[in-house]
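User: Can you model how magnesium ion sits in this protein?
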Amino acid sequence: MIRRSTNPFTPTFGSMPYALAGRTELIDDVIGGLANRPGDPNRSTIFIGPRGSGKTVLLRTIAEEASAQGWVCVSVSARKGLHRELFDGIAQVAHHLLVSKPSTTITGVQVGPLGLQRELLLDEQQSDRFRLQAIVEDLNAQDIGLLVTIDELDPACEELIDFIDTYQHLVTEGRDVALLMAGLPSKVSTLLLDESVSFIRRAFQRRLDPINRYEVEEALFATITGNDKQIDQEALSFAAEATQGFAFAIQLVGYYLWRFGYGHDVITVDDAHAAVNYAKKEILNAIVEPSLRELTQRELEYLEAMALDDGPLATSVVAQRMGISMTNASNLRRRLIDRGLIAEVSYGVVDFVMPVMRDYLRR
Ligand SMILES: Nc1ncnc2c1ncn2[C@@H]1O[C@H](COP(=O)(O)OP(=O)(O)O)[C@@H](O)[C@H]1O
Ligand SMILES: [Mg+2]
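Assistant: Here's the modeled complex, given as structure tokens:
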């Protein structure tokens, strides 16, 4: 028999964590918007963050919460087949909803509401917009709202542009609908430039900032103790600090804490040091290197100039180091901020979003 020791941490993109760290404000704002009437600005929100900041998990968490409150929630990705995915998703979720309605006794697939749903969903002749309108009208008539989440925003996706247009009409008509989107900073900024979807410039833009240290500690602690293990307080603080509030790092550090703590009841400071070393290497492979590969030579040089310092740096200093004008330096800085690699910490002063990037560039 294989001996298994299941690791409760989930360092895999898109995996729901055992304990969610932080993000309560973002979640509460959207859920509050859903509870409010149609037109609430929180009902159209774009979440922006680099790879591994927790966008997919956030969309799923909010969709689960919204489902629990009676919303029909459908999740799609911004790629070819978006509408297909959307209608299949509605068919699936609305089926579930109608079956679970207390007033409806369902004994087989032919029963009333399902028949209605099939009739609506199978009419291929109607345009996607018309179909969606009909579905939303039908749901709204039963006092049910439709929440659509779109992950991996891609400005090159035509169906996305079409969908946003349809959504805009639904909002204008005062329908009970909501649209949550998530994407990388560079993709979102390109999308926002597209004139044909100027409507979504009015959507709330929310960044997935680093999660604060206490919330990270809480989540690590809850995951460890919730799975019958303990951790030394110093080890916990050290591990939480090392994640720098980066969602993927929380799972990765946690994963190795669990691995190195295998065989003893309490995870020690030594385990934590070993875990952090391993996690750093993995983050370089999974996040830092792929991000750097996408950069232009000039952008890379900007980061290299920044990496010479231990902390946040003024743009003027970088410009001087690179021997370029302030205007050029500001443009590079803007692009790197859009890519989610650096962030403005105070006026004109930027720092790395992922501190391991500095160590990496120095090497
Ligand atoms: N709030 C959170 N607390 C703890 N872990 C999280 C949180 N959000 C995401 N994660 C974890 O971080 C990793 C990346 O999350 P994901 O949602 O896939 O990021 P993104 O979609 O931004 O690339 C996953 O391993 C996931 O389990
Ligand atoms: Mg994702």
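A couple of observations from the model: The chain has three domains: 24-207, 213-291, 295-362. The first strand starts at residue 44 and ends at 48.
User: Helpful, thanks.
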